[in-house]
Amino acid sequence: MGYTRYDLKKKNKNIFMFIFLTCGILILAFISGSIISNLFIKDINKQGSSNSTKIPKKSVQPILDKKILAIQCGVFSNKENAEKIKTSLLAIGKPFIVEENNKTKVILGIYTEDKANEVIKKLEENKIDFSKVSFKYNLNNPCDIQIIQIVDAELQILEELSKDEVKSVQTKQLKEWCSDLKEVSENNKNYSVLSDLKKYINNLPQEVHKENLEEYNLYLYKKLKELKI
């Protein structure tokens, strides 16, 4: 009977080579896949970073063609009554108390004319008594122009600070802008007010906080009341 002769050593050697090559292919495939995957992920990350948008800083743009005024919501001889009115106005604005001529005044806020009209509409809808407080200044005078520029810039900061979601506002831009204003003659009637405002801004902290909002409003109101024509 015939038979086939097998070379067992050769067969084992072939099996070993097959396993070795298979493992090598799998390892190379894994390494190649990892490299391609990493390159792909990096490419996506690069695309994502290039499409990211930086939020531009808000620039200070003073308004000179509109009036600055305050809205007053009562004058009281009893401070407790003033405090009650102040509390009732919190739903509309950020009111503050002013002591003048032995009377306590409740000021809802200081506004440019357009903003004041929006607030007045809310007061009328809620049938709340109010009066407008105007300030004296001359926009043909370089000193007064700078004062109103500074006041308007501060109002922008205070308006931002009044928002519920805002806890603090940076003052760096305001300080830099104010320091770049040109010098005016000291002979102007309101030069002392201008000088005080510039010093006040220069001494502000790097961030102003919501809990000091009433203090900032009160200072601004008092300086506006000092203006003369």
Automatic annotation (TrEMBL):
Q: Does the keyword Transmembrane apply?
A: yes
Q: Which Pfam families match?
A: SPOR (PF05036)
Report domain SPOR positions.
Answer: 70-126
- Species source reads Clostridium colicanis DSM 13634
Q: Name one GO molecular function term.
A: peptidoglycan binding
Q: Sorted alphabetically, which keywords does the UniProt record give?
A: Membrane, Transmembrane, Transmembrane helix
Q: Which domain of life is it from?
A: Bacteria
Q: List, alphabetically, the InterPro entries matched.
A: SPOR-like_dom, SPOR-like_sf
Entry keyword Cytoplasm: no
Q: What is this protein called?
A: SPOR domain-containing protein
Where are its TM segments located? Answer: 15-41
